[in-house]
Specification:
The chain is built from twelve helices and ten strands. By secondary structure, it is of the alpha/beta class. The protein folds into two domains: 5-212, Spore Coat Polysaccharide Biosynthesis Protein SpsA, Chain A (Alpha-Beta Complex); 228-344, no CATH class.
């Protein structure tokens, strides 16, 4: 059977949120019969596998994949899903998030009617009672069709989940998520944008709901804890993204993305609770990374610039002191809420 869209959904220990995500897919206005749903279980240890097996026996258009070894990130599951997708068009969703009921219909029809290689829509972010719209890339325009290589702002949106892609572009150019290092999705998006000439951005349609669970709801969330491995994986992914951009000779995109990703890296360091020796080891790696980037970094958060300036001067004791102060302020029960409201209203760019 032919499908209009193949949707790839990685799953790891999501038994309590899997059905919420699935229900938002089965109720799509395009019709679930027009969708191939590829669910890739990353060797879950809860009841996720059982739920996936039950769903796949009920619906012939659900294609399950079960990985024998946990990969540690959504990169490998997404890559596996793309390889077996039978549709010409591919979308992604993270388990725990939801689609609006008409996202598939609107993105698919827009791609066909406008004859573009990518369609992207807005994202609603839900976090601790706060609702935020993701960064607007097209100003006051209702929509924008552009050549990404000539419109730097298109590289600000490096999320996979609010877009529809053409499989032939992915396969023909060997585009893939990182399986070692992250942000694994950013690497995919950047490579895809460099390989197309026509993308459509919808400004007034918010089709994806990004739901950030509280620590009580999701103890496995990578966004909740910062350890040495996470920082090292982020630095590894950062290097690969730098190399990818340099291969495409785009200094503007390099500077644009480096500012945003460095802010994330500095925030990770501020949350990193370890010995001074381990912190200094990480600071040396951040220092080396910034030198490798080769462009000046100017972060839009004063606290991050304070830490980063100390790093660049190799005044690591100051950087550690500043990070401890920031960590304490962010984890104060009263200030934490104020900080979240403030930071959520700003783009990392």
């Amino acid at each position: 059977m032919s499908y209009k869209i193949s949707i790839v959904m990685p799953v790891y220990n999501k038994e309590f949120s899997l059905m919420k995500t699935f229900n938002s897919i089965i109720n799509q206005t395009i019709g679930f019969s027009n969708i191939e749903l590829i669910i890739v279980d990353d060797n879950s240890t809860d009841n996720s596998k059982m739920l996936i097996k039950e769903l796949s026996t009920q619906y012939e258009n659900i294609n399950p994949i079960y990985l024998n070894i946990n990969s540690g990130s959504p990169g490998k599951p997404r890559n596996r899903g793309v390889k077996i997708a039978s549709s010409d068009n591919i979308m992604f969703i993270d388990c725990g998030d939801t689609y609006s009921k008409d996202i598939c219909e609107i993105l698919y029809n827009s791609m066909v009617q406008k004859n573009v290689d990518l369609v992207s829509c807005g994202v609603k972010i839900y976090f601790d009672g706060i609702t935020q719209d993701a960064v607007n890339l097209v100003g006051n325009n209702k929509e924008l069709i552009c050549n990404p290589k000539k419109y730097d702002n298109s590289f600000k949106d490096t999320s996979m989940v609010n877009k529809i892609f053409k499989k032939k572009v992915i396969i023909n150019n060997n585009i893939h998520c990182l399986e070692k290092g992250f942000p694994e999705d950013a690497y995919f998006i950047i490579d895809y944008l460099f390989n197309i000439s026509k993308a459509l951005y919808l400004n007034d349609f918010y089709g994806y709901n990004y739901i950030i669970p509280t620590s009580d709801e999701d103890t496995n969330s990578m966004s909740r804890t910062v350890d040495k491995k996470k920082i090292l994986n982020y630095i590894l992914g950062f290097y690969k993204i730098i190399d990818l951009i340099n291969e495409n000779d785009n200094a503007n995109v390099l500077k644009l993305l480096s500012n945003g990703y460095m802010l994330v890296l500095i925030s990770y360091f501020a949350k990193f609770q370890s010995s001074n020796d381990e912190k200094i080891e990480i600071l040396n790696k951040i220092f080396d990374l910034e030198k490798y980037i080769g462009v000046s970094i100017n972060l839009n958060q004063k606290w991050a610039n304070m830490i980063n300036n100390a790093i660049l001067k190799k005044k690591y004791k100051k950087a550690i002191l500043y990070s401890r102060i920031i960590f304490s302020l962010q984890n104060n029960s009263f200030l934490k809420k104020i900080y979240r409201i403030k930071i959520n209203k700003k783009s990392i760019y």
